[in-house]
Automatic annotation (TrEMBL):
Any one GO biological process: lipid biosynthetic process
Domain Thioesterase: from-to ranges: 29-251
Superkingdom of the source species: Bacteria
InterPro entries: AB_hydrolase_fold, TEII, Thioesterase
Stated family: Belongs to the thioesterase family.
Pfam annotation, one family: Thioesterase
Species this protein is from: Actinacidiphila reveromycinica
High-level lineage: Bacteria, Bacillati, Actinomycetota, Actinomycetes, Kitasatosporales
Protein name: Putative thioesterase
């Protein structure tokens, strides 16, 4: 997956991407954004699913894994501003954004920032396990709960391993990140603006009891370039378990032509 020296911008030097020294010659980049509390490792195996034409690039958000020493960002607008700035040098070829749950809103806001600046727009926006931006939250916010109560909520609503939830020392380290991520979604307000000129594929798990088809269908109003809603096997955390159906869907929607620099 190593490209020739000087073939284009490299991912090294940025704490936002996990690949420190190699660049891909792939025709398309796919930037992957995790759910609340999730890290880039949930996309660790995606490259194997795409082959050489697509470079699956997980995004390392502040406050987790190697960036645990950095405070997580609790405002969606601020986080999208930061991510958009990091992506600018990497828009030399077609790219797409994939986000799941909180990551879907972050991908959406980031795409708007890039388009507003007159930069290359994403080939497609993939939003998984996420209600449309205009859909109100129908549950009380939890990001401000006391630690014990918040851990109980995380046990019920997230993909956090039980052994992590039971480890008081580890939870002390990661709970601020969960709070910040939850605050990003629970305080998010969609700005009043025109739809994106970017096709949107919205994905919902058939066993996801947190979302209805109508909640997801609202993404239709966020694009002027085409919309589809797709149901796949799985629950809210589609990136866990067998991901082949999901990655196959994404691969079919990505461009097959050259970089077009």
């Amino acid at each position: 997956m190593t490209g020739a020296a000087g073939a284009g911008p490299r991912l090294s030097g940025s704490p936002w991407f996990p690949y420190a020294a190699e660049e891909s010659d792939a025709k398309t980049r796919l930037f992957c954004l995790p759910y609340a509390g999730g890290g880039w490792a949930v996309f660790r195996d995606w490259q194997e699913q795409f082959g050489p034409e697509v470079h699956a690039v997980p995004v390392k958000l502040p406050g987790r894994a190697e960036r645990l020493h950095e405070p997580a960002v609790a405002r969606m607008d601020h986080l999208a501003d930061l991510l958009a700035a990091e992506l600018v040098p990497l828009l030399d070829r077609p790219y797409a954004l994939f986000g799941i749950s909180m990551g879907a809103l972050l991908a959406f806001e980031t795409a708007h920032r890039l388009v507003t600046r007159g930069l290359r727009a994403p080939h497609r926006l993939f939003v998984a396990s996420c209600r449309a931006p205009r859909e109100p939250f129908d549950t009380p916010p939890v990001h401000g709960l006391p630690d014990t109560a918040l851990i109980t909520v995380l046990d019920r609503l997230t993909a956090t391993p039980p052994q992590l939830l039971a480890n008081a020392e580890l939870m002390r380290l990661v709970l601020p990140t969960f709070r910040a991520d939850l605050a990003c979604t629970e305080t998010y307000v969609r700005p009043d603006r025109a739809p994106l000129p970017v096709p949107v594929t919205a994905v919902r798990g058939r066993e996801d009891d947190t979302l209805t088809e109508a909640m997801v269908d609202g993404w239709r109003a966020e694009t002027s370039a085409g919309f589809e809603q797709v149901e796949l096997a799985g629950d809210h955390f589609l990136v866990h378990g067998d991901q082949r159906e999901l990655t196959a869907l994404v691969r079919r929607r990505l461009p097959r032509s050259g970089p077009g620099r």
